[in-house]
Design brief:
The protein is of the alpha+beta class. It is built from 5 helices and 9 strands; from the N terminus they run H-E-H-E-E-E-H-E-E-H-E-E-E-H. It is 29% helix and 27% strand. Strand 8 and strand 9 form a beta hairpin. Helix 1 packs across helix 2. It starts with a helix and ends with a helix.
């Protein structure tokens, strides 16, 4: 119920051009929604909650080049955690680069599941831009939609660096987009 409701809300925001900010699990749900409804992968899912579908989201160590699972058990939970500050390279001419005003950012993470990079080309052909990647190009950090006024998903946690009098630039930009949308 919860996951399906999140995916339905994301589909609504995407299709109705409503500003959307997906943080960590929210970005992962946006990936699943887009895979199901734009890439027509009807059984797209995360290995976190569905072992029978097609996992476009999985544990950090689940993927090899052809997209097949190589590991992915519930054992060694600490060994699959990405925790702390990591760099991301931002794509030129992206909304996210305009928001940050720089090419490389550092943001804090706390998660175990990642987007399967092997689907990147399919997503980008349908209009989802992988606008921020890890320095080695293997971990999607940021997604955005090309033909949407403000639709961004981030794998990291911007709330960790936001303060009442110094909000994170993502929050400021999202609030401005939401205000302009009304």
């Amino acid at each position: 119920r919860g996951t399906d409701g999140k995916i339905a809300a994301i589909k609504y925001a995407r299709s109705k051009m409503i500003p959307f900010l997906g943080i960590c699990y929210g970005m992962q749900m946006a990936i699943i929604e887009f895979a199901r409804n734009k890439l027509n992968i009807k059984k797209a899912t995360s290995s976190e909650f569905d072992k029978k579908g097609i996992p476009v989201i999985g544990l950090i160590d689940e993927w090899i080049k052809d997209g097949k699972k190589i590991k992915g058990t519930d054992k060694d939970l600490g060994g699959t955690m990405r925790l702390g500050s990591y760099e991301a390279k931002l794509k030129d001419n992206s909304m996210i680069k305009k928001i940050y005003g720089k090419k490389i950012i550092k943001e804090r993470h706390r998660h175990r599941y990642e987007v399967n990079i092997n689907y990147k080309d399919n997503f980008e052909k349908k209009g989802m831009n992988f606008s921020g990647l890890s320095p080695n190009g293997l971990l999607p950090e940021i997604i955005e939609l090309k033909n949407h006024p403000w639709f961004i998903g981030v794998q990291f946690h911007p709330e960790f660096k936001s303060r009442p009098l110094a909000p994170h630039p993502l929050f400021s930009s999202f609030i401005k987009a939401s205000k302009n949308h009304k």
